[in-house]
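Example for tutorial group B:
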């Protein structure tokens, strides 16, 4: 049954840029581009919040996301309920960036509405190609691209996505019955999804997390090439900071249990990573 769009299309979760693992539109980026980055972040957060709202059924989620897709590609330009999408479309037009990145994000969140399990690592990476890689590609295009193409950026964005999946694995299962941990790795450890509801990780789950972190480390090997290939120095500094943050989070997730508490950087760790990473990016 097709859902009906209500007068409250957006469902803000209360999450903002402070929730993210990485700086969003920080002072490191050119001042003239930060407003566009802010519009892109608001758009991405808006559609993500719809996909993650436990009070909406899958049909309603997809229907609302369809509305944002129409706003992005311009088949619907006047509906005020999709104002965030209209602002994003105008920003893309002004910056001469293709709408595909936003459409891919919408496709990822439609998938979130109806797909709750991932059979293996490759299946998860296919999802990340829609949910994470477009963010980096948008930023690259906005800042003049890279001599190395999109590969290092894709790798970094996918790594950040997997890190976030590990951080939020308990909430995703308890609130949405959604599990990003690969089914075949869970089966190899002979553990069920219900272990995600415990207040600590059993050994088998820890081994699955370590496999995810090992695979994420492989992505980071490619991601570390990113700063040196970028054509914009300020984006090189920002990417250097993000790489440092990702490396530190991987270290912490190997040590700390995400079922005991959300594993994240404290303020001192965060600013240390940003400072050291930005300097590293400057000298790439």
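The residue assignment follows.
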């Amino acid at each position: 049954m097709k859902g009906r769009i209500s007068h409250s299309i957006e469902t803000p979760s209360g999450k903002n840029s402070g929730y993210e693992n990485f700086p969003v539109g920080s002072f490191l980026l050119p001042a003239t581009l930060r407003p566009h980055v802010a519009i892109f972040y608001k758009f991405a957060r808006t559609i993500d919040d719809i996909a993650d709202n436990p009070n909406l059924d899958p049909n309603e989620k997809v229907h609302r996301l369809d509305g944002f897709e129409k706003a992005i590609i311009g088949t619907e330009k006047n509906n005020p309920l999709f104002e965030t999408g209209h602002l994003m479309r105008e920003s893309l037009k002004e910056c001469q960036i293709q709408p595909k990145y936003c459409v891919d994000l919408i496709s990822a969140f439609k998938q979130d509405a109806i797909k709750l399990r991932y059979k293996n690592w490759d299946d998860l990476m296919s999802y990340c190609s829609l949910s994470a890689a477009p963010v980096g590609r948008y930023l690259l295009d906005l800042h003049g691209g890279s001599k190395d193409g999109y590969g290092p950026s894709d790798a970094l964005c996918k790594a950040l996505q997997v890190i976030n999946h590990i951080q939020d694995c308990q909430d995703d299962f308890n609130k949405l019955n959604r599990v990003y941990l690969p089914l075949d790795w869970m089966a190899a450890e002979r553990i069920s999804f219900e272990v995600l509801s415990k207040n600590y990780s059993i050994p088998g789950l820890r081994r699955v997390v370590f496999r995810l972190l090992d695979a994420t480390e492989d992505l980071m090997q490619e991601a570390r090439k990113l700063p040196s290939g970028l054509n914009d120095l300020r984006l090189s500094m920002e990417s250097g900071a993000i790489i440092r943050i990702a490396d530190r989070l991987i270290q912490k997730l190997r040590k700390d249990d995400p079922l005991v508490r959300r594993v994240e950087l404290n303020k001192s760790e965060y600013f240390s990573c940003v400072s050291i990473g930005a300097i590293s990016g400057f000298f790439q």
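The chain has a mean pLDDT of 93. Compare this with the pattern of hydrophobic and polar residues in the output above.
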